[in-house]
Amino acid sequence: MLNSKREGVYYKNGAFLPAREGPAAGLPAPEEAKKGTMAYAILSKHNTARGMEELAIRFDAMASHDITYVGIIQTARASGMTEFPVPYVLTNCHNSLCAVGGTINEDDHVFGLSAAKKYGGEFVPAHQSVIHSYMRERYAAPGKMILGSDSHTRYGAYGTMAIGEGGPELARQLLKKTYNIAYPKVIAIYLTGAPRPGVGPQDVALALVKATFQQGVVKNAVMEFFGPGVKSLSMDYRSGIDVMTTETTCLSSVWETDDILRDHLTVLGRGDAYQRQAPAEGAYYDGVIEVALDRIEPMIALPFHPSNAYTIREFKANLDELLHQVDEDAVRQLGLKHRPASLREKIVDGKFRVDQGVIAGCSGGTYQNIVRAAQILDGHAIGSDEFWLSVYPTSQPVNLELTRKGYIASLMAAGASIRSCFCGPCFGAGDVPANGAFSIRHSTRNFPNREGSKPSDGQVSYVALMDARSIAATARNGGVLTGADELPEIPADPAVEPFAYDDTPYKARVYFGVGKPDPAQELVFGPNIADWPEQVALPENLLLTVCSAIYDPVTTTDELIPSGETSSYRSNPIKLSEFALSRKDPQYVPRAKQVLAVERLRRADPDAPEVRQALMGHDPAATGLGSLVMALKPGDGSAREQAASCQRVLGGAANLAAEYATKRYRSNVVNWGMLPFIAEGVKDWDIQPGDKLYIPGVRAAVDGGAEEIDATLIQHGAEKHVTLKLPGMTREERDIVLAGCLINYYAK
Q1: Measured in whole angstroms, how far is the alpha carbon of residue 165 from the centre of its chain?
Q2: Cα atoms found within 13 Å of the Cα of residue 703, Cβ hemisphere only
Q3: pLDDT for position 98
Q4: Which residue, 156, 465, 415, is CA-closest to 307?
Q5: 98-142: per-residue pLDDT in tens?
Q6: Cα torsion at 336, 426, 4, 254 (round to 10°)?
C-alpha cells in the first residue's frame, strides 16, 4: 500500500535511485539535482534572499477567516500598516453562527468588511464559502505561493505551494516583510495505480497520515506528489488528499500539473493561469513514499488523532480490542475522573452502530464527494432511529451546481440535513453529538473535543474520520458502520467529474476591493474587539514559575487553547486567555495570573515585600518574573497563534519542550516574545507546577547568539544546574524576543 524510503534518492526514468548510485548514473551532486524539484522552482521564484539556504519568501496572496483576521489586522495596524500590499482574502466560515457571545461574531464580520474597504482586501461574507474552497476556486494556480492563517492552507493539487501559519507571519507580509525559513527537505510522494470503487480521497489521506505522522517522516518538509497515478484522480480527489497533508506535520505540498488541472481552471474561468509543472529528470529528493492507490482500502481514524487509522475491514475484525483502547485513551487524554460508558456497548450483534455522520468542509464538502454520497443514498432512507447525517457543501457555487443537478434533492429525500458553507463541524462549533455518541466525519481532524463536547461538564462524545463514500454507505445501512466497498455496484470516481461553475453568488455578495484601499474608511469596532495588551521587553535575568507541566507524547493546539465555543472570543485577547489550557490543566490560568500580578507589582514597586519574597533574593530591578509551560512535544494541529499569545497575555515568558511538533507553533511562541527552549532529557526532570527556573544573564545570552544557556532548576527548595537550548534561532527571532513580541519589534 505505502512504501517509505527515508534516504536521499534521484528520480530518473520513472524510478528512484539511491543517492549513492547517482554518480555512476551520471547524475549531479544532490545540491545541484534538488533544483529539479517543483518545490525548488517555486521557492526560488519567491525567495528574496541572495541564496537558497535561508529563504526570505514573499507570497502572491493571503487568506484568513473570521477567528484570525481581526487579530492579524490589529497586529499589523499597531505595527504601522497602512494598506494590504498583497491580495488578502477575509472569509467568514468559522464564526458564521451567532449562537455564542451575543453579537460578537457578527461584530467581527463588520470589522472585517470595514478593514477590507480601508486597506484594500477581498471580503467573503458568512455562508458563502469555506476559506480553502474559495482560495482554490479563485486564487490557486501553478507556481504560486499562498499564505493562510489556518493550518489546512494547502492548494498543492493546483500546483500552488501554500503554507498555514500563525497570525504574526501574515502580519509580517502585511508589513512588507518576509517569511524566513531554512530551505526545507522535499519528499517525493509517488502515486501509482488508480483507486478502487468505494475508496475516496480521505481513505488515501488517512493511510498517508498513518504512515508518516508518528515517526515524523515528513515533518516540516514539502511533500511533492507525482507519478502515473495522478492522472486517475480528479481535482476534488487530489485536493481531498492534499488538504490532509497538514496532519503529517509537513510544511507544504505541491503536485505535478496536467490537462485535468488545465481543463478545471478553464471551467473556473482561469485557464490562462495554467502552466505545466513536473519534476525534472534526475531531480533529487530527501526521501520517497510510494503510494499504490489500487491497494488502498476504506479507512477509519479512531479518536483522538487522524493517525490512529485502520482499514474499516481491520477495525470491524477487532472491534472489542480497538474500542477498548479508545475507552482507555478517552480517560487518559480527557483527564476524566469518572469512566464513561464503554464504546463497546455500541457493538450490537457483532456490528458497530454509530450515531451521526457529517460530510463537511474543505476536505469533505467538495462537489465530487457529495455527488458520490448522493448516488450511494439515492432511493434509500437513513431511517428514523438515532443515526443522523449532515452535509455541508463547501461553497455556494458548489451548492448551486449540486442543486441544479438534483443531488441536494436526492440527499434531502434520503433524510440528510443540508447545511450552509461553514467549517463548524471541523472544530466543534456545529452538529455536536449527544453525550456518549460516536460521530463519523469527512472533515480534517478528530482531536479531543473537536466534536464540541465539554468533558469538564460531564460530557463526552467521539469523532472518527472516514470518507464521504463510507459515511454514505453507513447512513444507507441505518448507522451500522459500513465501508463503501461493501456495497454492490458502488460507483467509481472518474478522473473528470462533470461540473459547471457559476460564481454568480460571489458576484452578488463578495466585496472585491483588492488594490483599492480607502484610507478615509473608519474601522468598525464591536464591544468585544480589543487591542493586544502591552508586552514588555526581555529582562536582564528571568525567574520562571512552571504553571503547567504536560507529559503527554504530543500536546495539540486545541489543548493549549480550545476550539469551538472559544472562537467567539478570538478578537479579545484578555477574555480569550481565560480559556488557556482550560481542558488540559484548569489551574493553569489562576497560577499564571498569580505570577503576572507579582510581575506587574515588581515593575510598579520593586521594593514591595511580595516582590522580594517572590524573587528569592534576586535583584528586583534586573530580574523579571514570568510563567512557563512545559510540554514534551507541543503544537500539533492548528496554526492559531492564540495557542501562544494567550500564554503571553497571562505573563508567559517561555515554553520548555523536548521538541516542538510543528514549525508554525514554535514561530508563534517566538513572535509573541516567548523563548522556545528545548532540553535533552527534560522528561526525566520531573518538572511540576510551582517549580522554578532561574536564568541569569538571559538577555545578554539571547542577544549574543547563545544556543545553550545555563539555568538553575529549583524544586522543593533544592537547586540543580540544567542546560536550556535555543537551536536554530535566527538573528531576527532573537530580536523579536528581546523586544517582547513582534508588535514591539516593528513599532520600535
Answers
A1: 8
A2: 12
A3: 56
A4: 465
A5: 556 678 788 899 999 999 999 999 999 999 999 999 999 999 999
A6: -150
